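Sample A.
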Amino acid sequence: MSKPHVIPSHYAPLQAQQYLLLPVLVPKKEDQSCEIKGWQAVAQAVMGYRHSVTGQPCQDAASAQTRLRPIVVNCDGAGSAKLSHFGSNALSQQLQRLFMTLEPLLAEWLDTKDVDTEQISERLASIIARHSKGIIKDIATHWQQPETAFRSTLLVAIMGKYHHFWLQIGDGYLLRRCEHDETHAWQVMVMPEKGEFANHTCFVDPALTMAHVQYGMASATEISGLAAMSDGAAERLMNLQYHTSAPLVERFASLLSQQSSHRVLFEFLSDPSVWGKTSGDDKSISMVVAPKANANEQ
């Protein structure tokens, strides 16, 4: 008799939830999964001058993809955690792989018009949060260090045909570009949980619970861009008093059709004339943008 498969403890809740999700895996004939075309992506993380002085590595990590659907992930490792740069990079890269694995679910949930957005957003947020804790646990086991040494914030935004999803753990900013709003084209999705400037934030670590996770789903109609940035980048790209975006955000969005967009963003985030009078924190931006001509087709 073969032995039963043993599921690691930090994946057990995810495995249990998969059985609950089976009914929604059956595609509806009237709403087949879509392919969202024409989007461009850029992501950069640059070390702040404060870290160059102290010898700390860049603790930010940023990724963006459009291969299956537009997705941004942005992570800011805790300054007090000596190995948080490993944690933020692991979250940024491995979550993108998770989303590729979850694509059948994402297609069913985000590309179908009539769904229970409250229930789905709760399920998706729970999967991401639990998997993120597993990523941190695995890397801590590999390095034989406490999990708190790798803790990081987490920002995620995922685009669909009818809905977009977002999740935020800790500080930083999640933005969406709304075509119908000419005054504030880039809108903040959710107010950050007490940021670094208040000397307190929450992280992906063993203490994380769903009470610390902010998430939601909303209509994708007239949404033509998603962006995530660390609080270091927000010092110049956001009005921190009113939580509105600066014109520079749209400037980068307009550059995404150019092959040099990654270089331009890197040079901006490295420019001492721009960041010389800031806190010197690391800066990172993840962005995906649709051509404006196609915005109303999404």
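Sample B.
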Amino acid sequence: MQDLAILFNVIIILLMLFNTYVFQVGLVAILLERFRALLMLSALYLTSSIILHAWFMNLRWLNPNRYIWTDSLQALFLFQRTASVWYYYLYKRTAEYLGDPRLYEDSPWLREVFARSRQ
């Protein structure tokens, strides 16, 4: 369920990016530059979550009456939980930034960014 929720969160962020005026004008590079960290961390967090959950399920499936906790599983668990903190921070920051009206209308800021990108 958690993996599906992460996937839906990524889809929601992408839909929000597609609805901006900046994207519709064709300045996708500006959006990708601005939200690169979130997109890369989302992919990393989703991948680590899927691997961690599959590993847990595999260990439990092979021996349901024994609790198995290996060092490598603990390292992956620690990495996945650390990535989750950064993921949720960047997700909230991105959601807040996508509420900026400058992204949804023509503005002097957008014209300035467009002029800099053409040079």
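B remarks: The radius of gyration is 19 Å. DSSP finds six helices and no strands in the chain.
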